[in-house]
C-alpha cells in the first residue's frame, strides 16, 4: 500500500482485496531552536493523523543522526512512545481512535537537514511517505520558537561508589549505586539507562538491593539497561558490582537515562585507586563480593491438629553465603484463629515476640556466621478450624531477606465414622436461614451409647417448606476435596410418594449469611425417590449457590424398585470433577448407577450432609473416607 500527500489530500493505491483501515499523514517542519554559537541545532516537527479507528499500534523508524525529542503541543496522544534500546524505533501501543500524534525530532550530529523520509508501520501495514510531498507544519520564514527538549518528566539522579577509594592490595571490586527520584504524581518509564565505565573497568553483576536487573548490553565500556519504571512520588535503586582497573588514579564513571526524548543526568561518581603498581591478574567476570546469603525453611511437628490443639513451629535460618550476616527482626504473620502460646526450650531465640495474634515480631540483632544456622521454635494454639497458613519473614538492613510459609489443617480430618450411637450431635448443624425451616423436624432416636438413628420427620410440625438439610460441621470439613461417602438411608414417608426425596449432600459448601435468604449453600446431591423408583444426581448451579436451587444433572431408574421403610446403601466417590455412585441393598447387592464428569468442575471441595424434600427419612452409618 502506498500513501502520498497532495495538497493535504490523500491518494490511495492498494492491491485488490486488501482493505485499508489505517490512514496516516506525516508532516515535517524544520527550524532552528536555541542554536549554539556558530552552529545550527534544528528540530523537526512531525504529525501522524490516524483517520480511521481502531489502530492497534504505530511504529516509526528514525534515520541515523536523529532522535525522539518529546511530544509536541497539540498531540492528542498524550503517552510518549517506548524506545528500542538504540533509540531508533518509536512505538506507540494502542488501541487508538481517530486522533493525531505530534512529536519533535532532534539531531544528534551537527546538521540542519531534517529527515525527508520516515518509515511508519501502523496496524501491520508498512507505509513509506513520498519525500516530495512532505510539507512543513509552519512553513513561514520565522516560525515560533520551540523548546529543544519538551519536558515530559522530571527525574532526579544521584550516584555513589562504595568504597570511595582502593589500594592495589584490595580485591578491586566496588559497588555503584544510582538513585532515581520521581517527584511527580505519575510513574515515569525510563526507556534506557546507560553507564559509561572508565577504561579497563569490568562489569560484574547486580548487587543486593538492586531494582533494575541485568543489563541488555554488558559490553564495556558502555553498559545499557532496558525499560524500567520509577513509581509515582517514589524512588528506584540501581546497584551493581564493577571491578576497577589495577592502576592508580581517579576514575569517573557517568550514568544517564532517557525517557521519551528527555535526558536525565549524567551523574557521576569518582573512585580513587591509590598506588601505581601494575599487573594483570586473571579476572572472574561473575565474581560476587563476600556477602551473607539467607535460606529459610518453615515446618511443624504436625500438619493436622484438632480444634483447640497446639502446633510446634520451627523456622530454620541458614547463612549460605561467605560473610557473617546480621538479622535485625523476624516476623510471623499468624492467620486468623491462631494464637502464640510460648517459646520452645530448644529454640536458639528465646525472647518472647511482640504480640500473640496477627503479625508477631521478634527483635534482635542475631549474628550468623558463614555456614551457620539459627533456629526459631515456638508453639501456637488453634482457636478456629480450617487450613491455617502462616508466613515467617527475615529482615536485615531494613530489607526483607527471606520468607517461608507453612500450612496446618485444623479440625477433624478423614476418616469420619458417624454411627449416631450417641444422642449428642455436636458435629451436625441444621440449616435454618431460610423461611419455614424448623430444627424440630430433625431428631435422634436410639439407646444412647448402644445404637441410634438420625431422623427427619416431615409431618412432625406442619409447614409448607419441603426442603431440609443437616450439615456435618467439622471445622476442616469444607476443605475436603477427594473422598468416599458410605451411608445407609431409608424413606419412611406414608403418603404423597410422588414428591418425596431423601439423600446425601456431598462436596457441600455452607456459609450462613445471617439472613433468611438461603445463602450460601452449594454442592452435589444424591436422592432416592420411591414414588417413581428413580435415583437422581443433582448439582447447585455455579452461578446461584443458595438453598433449594439444585437441578438434575443425571437420573437412573432402579429396576428392583425403591420400597418404603427399606434400608438402602449408597457409596459415593468424588475425585476431581469425576463423580461415581453405587446403590443397592443386602438382597440385590450394589450396582453402579452414576458415572458423571462435571464439565464445569463447579464444586471442588466441601463437607457432607443429609438432605430431604417433602418426605420423612432415617439415616445411619455415615462414613467419609479418604480415597486411596
Overview of the structural elements:
Residues 1-41, 124-152 and 277-283 have low confidence and may be disordered. This protein has no helices and 46 strands. It is elongated. The chain has 628 residues and is mainly beta.
> How many distinct helices?
0
Outline: elongated
CATH topology of the largest domain: Jelly Rolls
CATH secondary-structure class of the largest domain: Mainly Beta
Decide which structural class fits the backbone. Answer: mainly beta
Q: What's the total number of strands?
A: 46
Overall CATH architecture of the largest domain: Sandwich
Oligomer: single chain
Radius of gyration equals: 38 Å
Kindly, what is the distance between the CA atoms of the first and last residues, rounded to a whole number of angstroms?
Answer: 66 Å
Strand content: over 45%
Helicity range: under 10%
Overall number of domains: 4
CATH superfamily of the largest domain: Exo-inulinase, domain 1
* Poorly predicted runs of 5 or more residues: 1-41, 124-152, 277-283
Largest sheet: 8 strands, antiparallel
Mean pLDDT: 79
Amino acid at each position: 500500500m502506498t500513501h502520498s500527500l497532495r495538497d493535504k489530500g490523500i491518494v490511495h493505491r492498494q492491491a485488490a482485496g486488501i482493505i485499508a483501515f489505517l490512514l496516516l499523514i506525516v508532516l515535517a517542519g524544520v527550524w532552528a531552536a536555541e542554536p549554539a554559537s556558530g552552529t545550527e541545532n534544528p528540530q523537526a516537527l512531525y504529525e501522524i493523523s490516524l483517520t480511521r479507528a481502531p489502530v492497534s499500534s504505530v511504529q516509526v523508524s528514525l534515520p541515523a543522526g536523529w532522535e525522539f525529542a518529546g511530544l509536541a503541543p497539540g498531540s492528542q496522544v498524550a503517552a510518549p512512545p517506548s524506545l528500542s534500546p538504540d533509540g531508533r524505533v518509536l512505538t506507540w501501543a494502542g488501541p487508538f481512535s481517530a486522533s493525531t500524534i505530534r512529536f519533535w525530532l532532534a539531531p544528534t550530529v551537527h546538521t540542519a537537514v531534517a529527515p525527508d523520509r520516515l518509515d511508519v508501520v501502523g496496524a501491520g501495514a508498512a507505509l513509506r511517505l513520498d519525500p516530495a510531498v512532505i510539507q512543513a507544519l509552519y512553513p513561514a520564514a520565522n516560525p515560533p520558537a520551540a523548546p529543544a527538549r519538551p519536558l515530559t518528566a522530571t527525574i532526579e539522579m544521584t550516584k555513589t561508589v562504595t568504597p570511595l577509594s582502593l589500594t592495589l592490595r584490595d580485591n578491586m571490586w566496588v559497588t555503584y549505586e544510582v538513585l532515581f527520584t520521581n517527584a511527580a504524581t505519575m510513574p515515569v518509564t525510563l526507556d534506557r539507562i546507560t553507564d559509561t565505565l572508565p577504561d579497563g573497568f569490568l562489569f560484574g553483576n547486580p548487587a543486593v538491593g538492586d531494582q533494575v536487573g541485568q543489563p541488555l548490553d554488558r559490553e564495556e565500556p558502555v553498559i545499557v539497561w532496558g525499560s524500567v519504571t520509577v513509581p509515582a512520588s517514589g524512588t528506584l535503586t540501581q546497584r551493581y558490582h564493577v571491578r576497577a582497573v589495577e592502576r592508580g588514579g581517579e576514575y569517573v564513571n557517568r550514568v544517564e537515562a532517557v525517557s521519551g526524548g528527555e535526558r536525565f543526568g549524567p551523574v557521576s561518581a569518582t573512585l580513587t585507586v591509590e598506588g601505581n603498581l601494575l599487573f594483570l591478574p586473571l579476572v572472574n567476570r561473575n565474581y560476587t563480593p563476600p556477602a551473607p546469603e539467607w535460606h529459610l525453611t518453615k515446618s511443624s511437628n504436625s500438619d493436622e491438629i484438632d480444634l483447640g490443639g497446639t502446633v510446634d513451629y520451627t523456622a530454620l535460618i541458614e547463612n549460605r553465603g561467605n560473610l557473617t550476616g546480621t538479622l535485625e527482626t523476624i516476623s510471623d504473620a499468624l492467620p486468623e484463629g491462631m494464637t502464640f502460646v510460648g517459646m520452645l526450650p530448644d529454640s536458639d531465640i528465646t525472647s518472647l515476640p511482640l504480640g500473640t495474634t496477627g503479625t508477631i515480631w521478634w527483635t534482635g540483632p542475631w549474628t550468623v556466621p558463614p555456614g551457620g544456622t539459627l533456629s526459631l521454635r515456638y508453639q501456637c494454639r488453634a482457636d478456629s478450624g480450617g487450613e491455617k497458613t502462616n508466613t515467617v519473614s527475615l529482615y536485615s538492613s531494613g530489607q526483607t531477606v527471606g520468607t517461608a510459609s507453612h500450612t496446618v489443617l485444623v479440625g477433624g480430618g478423614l476418616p469420619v465414622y458417624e454411627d449416631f450411637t450417641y444422642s449428642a450431635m455436636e458435629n451436625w448443624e441444621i440449616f435454618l436461614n431460610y423461611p419455614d425451616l424448623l430444627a424440630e423436624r430433625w431428631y435422634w432416636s436410639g439407646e444412647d451409647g448402644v445404637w441410634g438413628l438420625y431422623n427427619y420427620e416431615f409431618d412432625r410440625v406442619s409447614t409448607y417448606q419441603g426442603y431440609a438439610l443437616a450439615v456435618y460441621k467439622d471445622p476442616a470439613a469444607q476443605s475436603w476435596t477427594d473422598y468416599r461417602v458410605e451411608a445407609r438411608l431409608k424413606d419412611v414417608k406414608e403418603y404423597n410418594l410422588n414428591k418425596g426425596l431423601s439423600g446425601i449432600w456431598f462436596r457441600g459448601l455452607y456459609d450462613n449469611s445471617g439472613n433468611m435468604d438461603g445463602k450460601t449453600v452449594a454442592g452435589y446431591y444424591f436422592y432416592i425417590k420411591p414414588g417413581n423408583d428413580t435415583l437422581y444426581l443433582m448439582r447447585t448451579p455455579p452461578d446461584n449457590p443458595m438453598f433449594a436451587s439444585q437441578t438434575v444433572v443425571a437420573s437412573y431408574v432402579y429396576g428392583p424398585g425403591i420400597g418404603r421403610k427399606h434400608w438402602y446403601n449408597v457409596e459415593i466417590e468424588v475425585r476431581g470433577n469425576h463423580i461415581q455412585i453405587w446403590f443397592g441393598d443386602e438382597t440385590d447387592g450394589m450396582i453402579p448407577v452414576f458415572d458423571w464428569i462435571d464439565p464445569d468442575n463447579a464444586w471442588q471441595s466441601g463437607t457432607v450432609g443429609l438432605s430431604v424434600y417433602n418426605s420423612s427419612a432415617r439415616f445411619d452409618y455415615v462414613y467419609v473416607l479418604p480415597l486411596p
